[in-house]
Amino acid sequence: MKSQNSQNDESVHLIEPLTRRRFIQGSSALMAVPFIASKSIASAPENPSIIAIKTLNNNSDERVVSTCSSFDCGGKCDIRAHVKEGVVTRISTRPDADLDEEMPIMRACVRGRSYRKFVYHPNRLKYPMKRVGKRGEGRFERISWEEATTLIADNMKRINDQYGAASRFVSLSTGVTGGIFSGANMLRRLFNLTGGFLENYHSVSNGNTMAVTPYTYGTSASGSTLDTLENTPLVILWGHNPNETIFGHSNHYFQKMKKNGTKFIVVDPRYSDTASSLADQWIPILPTTDNAMMDAMMYVIISEGLHDQAFIDNYTVGFDEHLMPEGVPENESLVAYLMGKKDGVVKTPEWAEPITKVPADTIRQLAREYANTKPAALMQGWGPQRHICGERSARGATLLATITGNVGVKGGWAAGYGMAVTPDLRKTLAGPSLFENKVKAKINITNWVQACEDKNLVTPDNGLKNAKKLDTEIKMIFSLAGNYMTNQNPDILHAAKVLEDENKVEFIVYSDLYMTPSAKYADILLPETSFMERWNVGGTWGTGNYIILSEKVIEPEFERRSDYEWLREVADKLGVGEQFSEGRTEKEWIEHLVNDAHEKRPEDGIPTFDELLVKRRHLLKHKPHTGHVAFEKNINDLANNPFETPSGKIEIFSKRLYERNDADIPALSHYVPAIEGPEDALVTRYPLQLITWKGRNRANSTQFANPWLQEVQRQELWINPIDAKRRNIEDDSRVKVSNDRGVTMVPVKITQRIMPGVVALQAGAWWQPDEKGIDQGGCANVLTSARSTAMAHGNAHQTLLVEVSKA
Ligand SMILES: Nc1nc2c(c(=O)[nH]1)N[C@H]1C(S)=C(S)[C@@H](COP(=O)(O)OP(=O)(O)OC[C@H]3O[C@@H](n4cnc5c(=O)[nH]c(N)nc54)[C@H](O)[C@@H]3O)O[C@H]1N2
Ligand SMILES: Nc1nc2c(c(=O)[nH]1)N[C@H]1C(S)=C(S)[C@@H](COP(=O)(O)OP(=O)(O)OC[C@H]3O[C@@H](n4cnc5c(=O)[nH]c(N)nc54)[C@H](O)[C@@H]3O)O[C@H]1N2
Ligand code: SF4
Ligand SMILES: [Mo]
């Protein structure tokens, strides 16, 4: 292990006071950020060079602490924090000596390498604060923790008494979801101890595909462990960019496969980093038209006899008239649809070409290649399912995998949701400790603004579960480690307007490390510790197979406290302190949760806390380690292992969806033009489709303010040279991107990496409204729509039309 802290590494910035001062005063990137309140209140009194002096004085030996972050970042890496005299001076990552063939490399990405700047940023919140201006203005004053926790406890009680427990809401917060312990979950526990709260469901990340994949396979766990792809000759990455999204370390496996000769094809409107590093072929496609290409591919495969008839006969329903479920009239099968038996339209590549802008010959070639290569893996990312038609495209690919016999076969891939059966440790470890919620009604996360606005806007038809109506509006919001009240939510301007009205939501508590755009809507703003200042256990994404200790590295500075710590005080004030904490510190809770899972679920191979801490160097594999092929059991012995669908088979045609009779979620997944897609009449006013992607320099909006990461990739609008020329737009100039919902101003990058007709912004840039309310930060969510998907009622951030003009 290296222990030398060389002069030329990144810590130079920290130990050289001049550089540091220059960075604080002169960084234009930071100046652009709305730090109105934090400038004077949160940062001013402290001398930022304290850290610098501490670092300069040190002669003592360096300590290297193994840890990991708890962000929802796609991975979970082995981070080594180099600590001298209580200060992190450098970050390194998993050394060669620790590599393990059965595991991904888990080396820090560029964000991980920059964690130190996230933790030691002068603009980090330092003290609890209380709003003084109008809500949303961002004016705060410093208060004591005693005042903060008293105000919180009093309001929790008052609002409960006045409006009922269902008026209390926990906002989406993924900032601390990669760990088994989080403030948001402990808040749920406290709410449940004092009457309950309004829970939400639906993952904004993957909820649409999670909801629809079971209509094909009976379950959403359609993924295999990635090691099983080792000898796969062909991988099609469909709207999938693991080079940037990490995605359970997929890229680790893909790069190895690439070296061994696997061919990669990427279908994406953008020439993504994954396309540039992996792809033998890039197929650009207009967003929301994926199903048209899938339909045409299936047409080619079936009309040329390349489908796997034996597989179809044995394992599926709905392929043709012989394989239809009872009680469905003629011409509803897949073959009937593709041959145009009902609508007279044969779904040829020539039919799909003008819709998708993919040349017919390319569609034909891809269809033949996919069907002729055995096995082949068509793997979907989640960008396409975050569209209004996301349920259709997620299920569409499962039909392609099915008719080519790539399901349940080593080296194939079932498409759809794509995570393996690996238990989600983050949930299962935290789950049992939450107590029962007495409020049974649940809203979809997409309903939260409506539920603040007017309780009657939320109905069973648009997402309400377990109740016919809501009894009350949301009157109190806690957001602990999320930026979803504004920034990450679609149609920000509408959400902000609702939040500004203090007669609607009466009390908002927000904890973060930074004065984010959502923080400005807080009534009480709390400075949380970072993952380096507390204990946790990180769990990797669903294709991974390990948990990793997130060891506390440094002591918190200023008045920063973990959410759990202040929640304990609130619990005391509400008279439930002992039940809430059971006398445990945060670390003791984590020990308890891990040891409990170790005892109660021996089949998962979860270690004890001690093993994690000492014996096996902070990191442990759990089952299934490797070798899991989704649906292999069902395919090997269907009689004893039927699929969990009503028919017990793979459902190409879903009778359940047929009976639902909703044109937006048809029984056979197929192309339906999307609202605000390229066939919408709105294109006459807003001719460009805008998509967002998850870029390498932040996890959603987390680390947006990290100056090192701002240098990695600036926020800019990608536009094709053809579209730029039509608008007389010059490279690097500022442009205005607009639609009826909002406007954002951003520099432009003219590039062939985006296809004509489509523009793209990286997701997660901070919303930075100027005096006139016009965003100057290139934040896509001032433009996105809060429309929700047909069945899951899920978010559809990706589907929208805009126009771009010179600023
Ligand atoms: N670096 C980084 N990694 C992350 C995150 C991050 O913010 N930054 N966030 C994490 C989180 S929370 C999540 S949920 C995952 C998300 O992972 P994904 O949802 O898979 O990531 P996205 O970038 O949204 O989408 C993947 C690709 O889909 C493409 N795409 C968009 N629309 C369409 C379409 O209509 N058709 C096709 N074929 N392609 C389309 C985009 O151009 C993009 O390259 O990533 C995780 N990993
Ligand atoms: N246009 C568009 N919008 C999207 C998406 C998209 O692709 N396009 N993706 C969607 C998806 S998949 C997701 S998951 C959501 C994510 O939306 P959010 O859940 O809001 O995630 P972040 O934006 O990362 O915000 C997390 C916040 O937690 C803070 N934080 C980090 N660590 C800590 C900590 O230890 N304690 C506390 N208290 N705070 C901490 C960070 O500073 C950050 O402000 O966004 C969604 N929004
Ligand atoms: S941000 Fe995620 S992927 Fe990057 S180093 Fe941290 S844990 Fe790993
Ligand atoms: Mo996500």
From TrEMBL:
Which EC class heads this enzyme's classification?
Answer: oxidoreductase
Cofactors demanded by this protein: Mo-bis(molybdopterin guanine dinucleotide)
Specify the superkingdom: Bacteria
Q: What is its EC number?
A: 1.-.-.-, 1.8.99.-
Record bears the keyword Transport: no
Coiled coil, from the record? none
Q: Check the record and name the CDD domains matching this protein.
A: MopB_CT_DmsA-EC, MopB_DmsA-EC
Q: Which InterPro entries match?
A: Anaer_DMSO_reductase (IPR011888), Asp_de-COase-like_dom_sf (IPR009010), MoPterin_dinucl-bd_dom (IPR006657), Mopterin_OxRdtase (IPR006656), Mopterin_OxRdtase_4Fe-4S_dom (IPR006963), Mopterin_OxRdtase_prok_CS (IPR006655), Prok_Mopterin_Oxidored (IPR050612), TAT_signal (IPR006311)
What the record says about family reads:
Belongs to the prokaryotic molybdopterin-containing oxidoreductase family.
**PANTHER family from the xrefs?**
DIMETHYL SULFOXIDE REDUCTASE DMSA, TRIMETHYLAMINE-N-OXIDE REDUCTASE
Q: What name does UniProt use for this protein?
A: Anaerobic dimethyl sulfoxide reductase subunit A
Species of origin reads Providencia heimbachae ATCC 35613
Q: What is the lineage of its organism?
A: Bacteria, Pseudomonadati, Pseudomonadota, Gammaproteobacteria, Enterobacterales
